[in-house]
């Protein structure tokens, strides 16, 4: 998957860049973001607007705080592979590597590191968290609702019915994986849920088809590109993008949604081309 996916994604990135040049931006008016109001372009921002506190946070500190939860999850995941299961060490590593625990630890670490660097008062971390909650509340709500809806689709058999209908018309498994994942992505928002659900629906067909490792990797890539497109208002990533850039919902739909769909289609077409040549 890496040997095929990396060059394909490099071409998809180029296609996305070229497509983004076609998006009209002259009539887009940016609104407020979590960092404040956007500059009006008439004057340069002051040093106080560019820095938080008297001592600006260096890029190394920022990179460390971003990578901290990832490193903690990797330590917990890899560590569990090296210890017997069940054991006390396995339980501890399972707790350490849990995503929620890693993110909570990273948030606390950021408060301590930034607080010491910026000389925050004791109540400043609380005020910072309170200020951030309204911006992430919509994202959390949408992501949670999407996960619940995905569970309903699976429990009701709607996804399996769609899979059987596509196979009944003798749709190639590569195209079926892309279409099913794209439909699930559009309906419930979560790319991860769409990928896992689609893989579960097609696993019997893939196993019965007798595909080699190369073609199985291409099927997985097609499913992944299906999860890339049609990101809209039920996707947490859509709200993160629009909130942090100050875009309205309408502008987000014609920029973010269109470009993610173009990249998804381009990735699938390239994957299909490799399928034909393999």
Automatic annotation (TrEMBL):
Q: Which GO terms describe its molecular function?
A: gluconate transmembrane transporter activity
A GO cellular component annotation here is: plasma membrane
Question: Which Pfam family is one of this chain's hits?
Answer: GntP_permease
In residue numbers, the region (Disordered) covers 30-49
Q: Which InterPro entries match?
A: Glcn_transporter
Q: Which domain of life is it from?
A: Bacteria
Q: Do the record's keywords include rRNA processing?
A: no
Acidic residues: bias regions: 40-49
Query: Transcription among the record's keywords?
Result: no
Transmembrane region(s): 62-83, 95-116, 136-158, 165-185, 214-233, 253-277
Q: Which keywords has UniProt assigned to this entry?
A: Membrane, Transmembrane, Transmembrane helix
This chain belongs to which protein, by name?
A: GntP family permease domain protein
Annotated organism of origin: Propionibacterium acidifaciens F0233
What high-level taxonomic lineage is stated for the organism? Answer: Bacteria, Bacillati, Actinomycetota, Actinomycetes, Propionibacteriales
